[in-house]
Amino acid sequence: MTSILNDISAGNKFDIADLSPDDKKLLESIRERKVQLLEEIQQLKDEIAEVTNEIEQMDDGSEDSKNNPKTKQISIGKKKFNMDPKKGIEYLIQHVLLQETPEDVARFLHQGEGLNKTAIGDYLGEKSDFNIAVLKAFVNLHEFSDMILVQALRQFLWSFRLPGEAQKIDRMMECFAERYCELNPGVFTSSDTCYVLSFAIIMLNTSLHNPSVKDKPTVERFIIMNRGINDGGDLPPELLNSLYDSIKKEPFKIPEDDGNDLMHTFFNPDKEGWLWKQGVSKLGGRYRSWKRRWFILNDNCLYYFQFTTDKEPKGIIPLENIQVRVSTDKSKSHCFELFAQQGEIIKACKVDKEGKVVEGKHNVYKMSAATAEEKDEWIKCIKSCISENPFYDMLNARRKKAAHAK
Description:
Elements: H1 2-9, H2 21-60, H3 63-67, H4 69-83, H5 85-94, H6 102-111, H7 117-125, H8 129-140, H9 149-158, H10 166-183, H11 191-209, H12 219-225, H13 237-249, E1 271-281, E2 291-298, E3 301-305, E4 315-318, E5 323-327, E6 335-339, E7 349-351, E8 357-359, E9 362-368, H14 372-385, H15 390-405
Antiparallel strand pairs: 1-2, 1-9, 2-3, 3-4, 4-7, 5-6, 6-9, 7-8
Helix pairs in contact: 4-5, 6-8, 8-10, 10-11, 11-13
């Protein structure tokens, strides 16, 4: 091959037929690499064009926005909120579009126009003193008087999307229970009873309407589950019967909102949040560029979106017959990676730039979290969701056997 390269550099022609089998194989590999590089360059161009277009749209706005800087700033603030709730609120306060009071921020979130309901839930669930005050003010904007508990829950869960973190849900449901009991005195002996029953109703909704739950609870089991929660006493059976019937007839629904939020598809995921993602292809161990994506862990799959407001996921990574481990990277901190068995690719799929669903070609997906705690939490949650398919192992063993036979 060296002599042929010398001939090429000297301007001499050569015949491919003169190449040895190894040289032909190397040449073919170079050609494949060239095609792949061109594809990556085009992908980068498309991504740059997409980001540029998004920035231009944000800057240009509508005709009204051009004539009204305040309208334009509000629109930008809402987009920032949907990407990062804390920064969005800070932007709106800095531009004097919101007062820095829990009541004013709560009204903004309660009106919800153009806001992503996942982002609202994330912001309300934060544990800072200000966010907790906003949560209480937000709950107080709801009117639950003379409503049965299921009706109040439907209204409450319509206004935002419950986050996946247990502590956030705990704070939200505690505020809800206190508000409901305040407006409906005498229904329950304490807000603790309302709190526990509210959780039981949410769990019942999941059990009755999640197709993966095969053993559907009966009304008798629902009544037994809630014995003794009324300060040691039992709630009236007719009340529990009516709650059960209401949920069985009509499940909780998460609305299509003005933020174009698709996340209602994933009512209560195992985990969700922003991660940096990098794929490593099986062929030549090529590393793709790092991309920031919104990940949702649900039903033994990782779904990732470019934005929380996207209508469709950019890709899906089934957590089947793969493993997860801590990793390192020169350019990123708090890394971990999903990897397949040696010689195998991860059975993932993604949407290409033309909108077509294509099969992934990576045997490693490297991720980077914001903090070490987030990294550990992702690893823990992913490990608990990894499933084993015996058929896959049998097929893999058969492939190896066939390869050795050759």
